[in-house]
Design a protein that fits this description.
Blueprint lengths: L6 H36 L3
Length: 45
């Protein structure tokens, strides 16, 4: 019994990885966007 993964398994894993990366990227972008939006309020002039 060998350990070959089917194409479907490989594609599914890749899709999960991409979805995770996309979610992390969007989260970081949102945090940066909010930080930039509130920076003038918080930052002492």
């Amino acid at each position: 019994m060998h350990n070959d993964r089917t194409l479907l398994e490989i594609v599914t894993d890749s899709a999960k990885d991409l979805a995770g990366l996309a979610a992390i990227s969007l989260f970081i972008l949102a945090v940066v966007h909010i930080a930039i939006a509130y920076a003038p309020v918080v930052k002492p002039v």
